[in-house]
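User: Sequence in, structure out. Go.
Assistant: Echoing your sequence, followed by the structure tokens.
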Amino acid sequence: MSKIYDFTLSYSLFRSYVMFAFKKFFSRYIVMGKENIPETGPVIFAPNHLNALMDALAVISVVPHKMPVVFLARSDYFNNKVIARFLHFCKILPAFRMREGLENVDKNNEIFEACVDVLNHNQAIGIMPEGNQGSKRKLRPLAKGIFRIAFMAQQKYGNQPGVKIVPVGLDWGNIDKYGEHIIINVGKPIEVCEYMNEYEENQPAAINQLRDRLRDGLSEVTLDIATEKNYECFETATIAASAAMVEKMKLPNTEKYRFLARQKTARQLLEMEKNKPETIDKLNVICKEYRENLRKLNVPSWLLDKNLKVSSLLLESLLLVITFPFFLIGLVLNALPFFSPDIIMKAFHINFPGGKGSLRFGLGMVTFPLFYILQSVLFYKKVKDSLWAVAVFLPLQYYLGKCAFLWHKKFRKLKVKFRYHKLQVKNSLILQRTKLLHEEILQLVQS
């Protein structure tokens, strides 16, 4: 009987297709710290948890192809037998929570033993150490399960290097939408053997020490706005100051470096929260008015860093007019597969809070190839059985769809730019006030 960690041919083919689709789901797929990924197990990947099943796929996308990662997921996903078999094929085991009753929580002992077996065969597992899914860009308390499994598996190796825990930071442009960025930031591995002496003498103390180490590691690779009282203020300030911080750090203005700039800004603000509470109180007032003004103006924060010229707006408009036929063709060929996931979710009343992106991705893996094949068959009939034309048409549907999506994204951005330019021409008092607030935020953040 095959083990859950066996790398079967069927799993290899399925994984290859899913990973291909996963990377195409994002406008920018960015990996940092890839050199920190161990080539073999035993290893536990520990990502922050914001985006349902997509978090697991993000981890799988960066590990070596022949390293299957066995993940844990909430047990209610396994209530349906067909779904349970599919999840097992995907190398996912159930994790039981306290709210599901003590009798079910006891089943975790079997799951933990299964995880230890995976690690003892030099394979990898993935566990979301926060336990549940969050919505804010901050780490939540880490559950003890991951550390229990780590120490249980490390007993095979004693004080010698064996089990490693690798913190993985995930930063999503938008957890629900297609065509946003993803940043996968892999931290340095933590050797569990370093805590075995303490574990043999005082297990709770060793678990707490390892938990603190992992939390520090995750904080290094994520945007960890670790405040409750000032979270909204700090989130606003990190976004508002990102472009200026990138410039100050003398780095290219790319998604990767804007992420690093937001990290640095968040850490500075957390330090100010401790040492300069009066400055943070002032920043809170400014950020609140700043957010309200942006909402009234209906413009994004990044536009305030731009110096828009009419000539550039007209040039962008001209390019959109010229490329409109490509948008139209791409839209016609991709409307059904693109919008079908939302239609299906609405028709069957599927509501998965925090997991809409996962559902769109999963359904899209079916709808896109299905409609592309059906449309290719119809095209084959129209071109009088010309196979070479169909061979070109089949992949062309995807690329035209990509063009249509990018065109639409550029069009929406251009509309916002024209709105912003109109406000500038009218000398909008709210816009002038918002620019002043923006400058005050930068001054306070950089003080």
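User: And one key feature?
Assistant: The beta strands are 28-32, 43-47, 69-74, 92-95, 124-126, 164-172, 181-186, 190-191.
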